[in-house]
Amino acid sequence: MTQFDLTDEQLQIQEMARQFTADAITPHAAEWDEKHIFPRDTIRAAAELGFASIYVSEESGGIGLGRLEAALIMEAMAYGCPSTSAFISIHNMASWMIDSFGSQAVKDKYLPSLITMERIASYCLTEPSSGSDAAALKTRAVLDGDHYVVNGSKQFISGAGENEIYVTMVRTGEESPKGISCLVIEKDMPGVSFGANERKLGWHSQPTRQVTFDNVRVPVENRVGGEGEGFRFAMMGLDGGRLNIGACSLGGAQRCLDEAVKYTKDRQQFGKPIADFQNTQFVLADMATELEAARALLYLAAAKVTAGAPDKTKFAAMAKRFATDTGSSVVDRALQLHGGYGYLMDYPIERFWRDLRVHSILEGTNQVMRMIVGRELTRQ
pTM of the full predicted structure? Predict the structure, then answer.
């Protein structure tokens, strides 16, 4: 063992996730994509392995793992379906936020059903007019006795309309990050409604809709943390979310690299397998090298986030940017190596090409990741 190896426990977690993926995700992912099927039963089966509460504390009923273990799980599941893996990551972010910052009352109210995925959670930050500028959100919660009255809307919400729980950032005070709080809102609360399912390039195995709040009365006890703390929680949650999205890119890209190696060894042109051509070998070598480099950076960043290192946010941003850009580049070259066949839905490459494209946009665009890293560098 060296300091760069995974531990025996981490290898066991990785293997368990890989086996689950091989049995329950990979054989069905193409159908989920083509028919826009939301695989609720498969997602709940993942919860039976603890994958719905990866970094919820053991005392709250979770499995209490670190961000590296979470990345290993997300990477393994994305090998079968990046969309489904990313969906489970979002649920984990919402559950972690409740466990880490919620009162005992809100934990007792929601965590037992979130851990089993009897109820599934969405994370609501983005709005129609505030994406990268998340602190400009307009959804407002006004205190009225022992309730908040919430009005506004959230955009691009994974699981909207299907999920039962919405961990939502709202404005309770001044027009700044300090005026943002976090509320847990339930699907069935009067005044909660959903837009039409978005028609997306990829991520077809999960619904994405707008969520609208029209005079929704939310109990004060559903607030996570104190007033004005929501934006800080949201940013802390995004450190982990960025790692998981990067891990999903790694898993999807690894699948496409493996498919490209297999295809080029089978495909004959000019009397021999195209894998024998030096150009093909050079392309495959670059894909593998870049993927390993991205994986090493992401694992390092995950360890820093788990440890609460001072530079954790910078490293999470670097890893997310590099892993998602690398993942898309690797998948694009895998499609090229498949030639015309890579463009067909009979092969998995085009699905991964579509699914991974959004990873450089969500959890903070890769341009914003560069801003975060650049600011950190110039402050020194």
Answer: 0.96
